[in-house]
Specification:
With about 270 residues, this protein is α/β, with parallel strands linked by helices. It is built from 8 helices and 10 strands. Strands 5-9-8-6-10 form a 5-stranded mixed beta barrel.
């Protein structure tokens, strides 16, 4: 016979788990890979750079923060590579800065925002903005049972049916790898992931968010058509400025929608 207290204990535990879902979102962490992507959002919300970094001494990671309506907004990007002076893109920097930011800032919600490539065969066009429903890696190939699933690292964003309906955003699966181009083996993995959008950070940010149990959504704006006629790097650079403007507008709409709502209302 089960102890009489089991049901009440279970009810208390369920209430504790459900409580963050019902509490209004207060602190938002926006993780962005590139300065060009970050600055329009910083300017829009009048965020200020933190003069006394919450990050370890010597790292190039940058945090901007401020208050917008009822939200505490933190935007972080990994900064410039200390040796080469370029944006610290890719999975390693994204995972590290996400981990450090969660530890320091205790966000209620993470928004991984940025530019990405996408497939016209999946209905994507330049400047389209997608909410990613699922994220996975396409360049971690480990052909051993179970390790293969670990390599793919499939994870889901939190459900946001009201956000999708209200803002009329496109929804698709996101695939992540550390190369801007796409090798034939990458393409096969991306196809297996059923991805519409391809980036260099999302699945790594998702891994850390899942590890530390922080809800996450992904907002990705299309700079280049992977199955198009133009070389990826050329098209990416050609469209970067215009698409970051579209990204900022979508992030603003997302933040406005989130304000005053709980996770369960998204």
């Amino acid at each position: 016979m089960a102890p009489r207290g089991d049901k009440s204990d279970a009810a208390v535990e369920a209430a504790v788990v459900a409580e963050p879902q019902r509490r209004p979102i207060s602190t938002v962490l926006i993780v962005i890979a590139m300065q060009t992507e970050a600055l329009p959002v910083v300017n829009k919300f009048q965020l200020t750079e933190d003069p006394q970094s919450v990050f370890p001494e010597g790292v190039p990671w940058v945090r901007y923060h401020g208050t917008y309506k009822d939200l505490n907004i933190n935007l972080v990007w990994p900064g410039k590579d200390l040796a080469l002076g370029v944006d610290s893109v890719g999975t390693v920097s994204a995972a590290l800065v996400t981990y450090a930011s969660i530890q320091a800032l205790k966000p209620d919600l993470i928004i991984n925002a940025g530019t990405a490539g996408a497939f016209k065969a999946k209905g994507a066009s330049i400047s389209d903005v997608f909410l990613a429903s699922d994220v996975a890696f396409h360049d971690r190939r480990i052909p051993i049972p179970v390790f293969d699933l670990y390599g793919v690292g499939l994870r889901q964003a939190i459900p946001t049916p009201n956000l999708v309906k209200e803002l009329n955003l496109k929804v698709g699966k996101l695939s992540t790898g550390d190369s801007l181009d796409m090798s034939p083996r990458d393409e096969a993995s991306i196809t297996a992931n059923d991805a519409t959008v391809k980036d260099m950070e999302g699945a790594a940010v998702a891994y850390v968010a899942d590890l530390l149990k922080v809800p996450i959504i992904f907002v990705k704006a299309v700079t280049d058509i992977i199955d198009g006629e133009k070389p990826t790097a050329e098209e990416f650079l050609q469209n970067l400025a215009a698409v970051t403007a579209a990204l900022e507008k979508s992030i603003t709409h997302v933040i406005d929608f989130i304000n005053g709502k709980s996770l369960s209302e998204l």
